[in-house]
Design a protein that fits this description.
Strand content: 25-35%
Distance between the termini: 22 Å
Radius of gyration: 21 Å
CATH class of the largest domain: Alpha Beta
Structural class: alpha+beta
Shape: elongated
Number of domains: 2
CATH topology of the largest domain: Aminopeptidase
Length: 299
């Protein structure tokens, strides 16, 4: 992605409202962005401050201005191609949300399309940011529920013929193919996501059966507990105790670390996965996320 693709936002089609001016942010804009994050009436920031600052260096943050005042900010992350992840959205005055969000999305349109990306991806708890995005053509894809487990009970170890080991670099092509078979595009990991899991800070396990990688699990130590980020099984091997084996291994690791609760997310409509998690003693935590998307080239 090249720097310098900012410019005046276009505003919402068909409206006579003046559009805020927009430009690509740089590290020198950190004081401006930091102040905006502190004062914004409409804000969703999915990353810690150091990650937000890194986004300024990586040319993936846009600022909106009116009368010299910063009135909005948008930051994205390129992951799970062809989707671009909306990670930060801030609007100084909630009454201006429609115009500011439209201008920021318009500013990010050209660089994201030039990078070969096709659609926005956004996940967050229900709230005003989601509603602001709905006004810009975003549609709700799915409701995601968080489940939690407050003990280390394991009702079954699954298929003992399944070998669980740390994932390796050589596994990445097979894992990417597995993901493509198991998930719709919105939920798939790309090669970059698997490389990130391998770089450290994650528990990244591969499941082998008959010499073939048939599933994987990604987890991390999180301030809230032991978080299972992903559990995936090749559809050709589902129903053979692979997922049970991976989940049992994850719980055993959490026990070895002395970490509770054990947490994970799953789509509300994924009945098969929810049956497995309920059997293992997971219960709804009460927290939900809404998953949104929209074509970058909209409208």
């Amino acid at each position: 992605m090249e720097r310098g693709h900012g410019g005046a936002g276009t505003g919402s089609p068909g409206e006579g409202e003046p559009s805020p001016e927009t430009r690509l942010a740089t590290p020198e804009d950190w004081p401006t962005l930091s102040a905006l994050l502190h004062r914004a009436e409409l804000l969703d920031c999915l990353d810690p401050r150091e990650t937000v600052y890194a986004g300024l260096r990586e040319a993936r943050t846009f600022l909106a201005f009116e009368g010299g005042e910063a009135v909005g900010a948008l930051q994205f992350q390129v992951r799970r191609r062809p989707f671009v992840h909306l990670r930060l959205l801030a609007v100084r005055h909630a009454a201006q949300a429609k115009e500011v969000v439209a201008a920021l999305l318009a500013a990010a349109r050209l660089p994201t399309l030039e990078a070969g990306l096709e659609a926005w991806r956004y996940m967050a708890p229900p709230g005003p940011v989601g509603e602001a995005l709905r006004h810009q053509g975003f549609r709700l894809v799915e409701e995601v529920v968080e489940l939690e487990k407050e003990d280390y009970d394991i009702p079954s170890r699954g298929n003992r013929a399944v070998h669980i080991r740390p994932a390796r670099e050589a596994d990445v092509p097979a894992l990417a193919a597995l993901d493509a078979a198991a998930f719709t595009p919105f939920w798939r990991n790309d090669l970059g996501a698997f490389q990130e899991y391998l770089r450290g800070g994650y528990t990244f396990l591969a499941a082998e059966l008959k010499g073939q990688v048939v599933g994987y699990l990604v987890a991390e130590d999180h301030p809230a507990g032991f978080y299972i980020i992903r559990l995936a099984v090749d559809p050709a091997w589902q129903g053979q105790g692979v997922g049970t084996r991976l989940l049992a291994e994850a719980i055993a690791l959490a026990k070895a670390q002395g970490t509770l609760p054990i947490l994970l997310n799953t789509q509300r409509t994924n009945r098969q996965a929810r049956r497995l998690y309920t059997w293992f003693g997971f219960r709804p935590s009460g927290r939900v996320l809404w998953a949104w998307t929209r074509a970058i080239a909209y409208p």
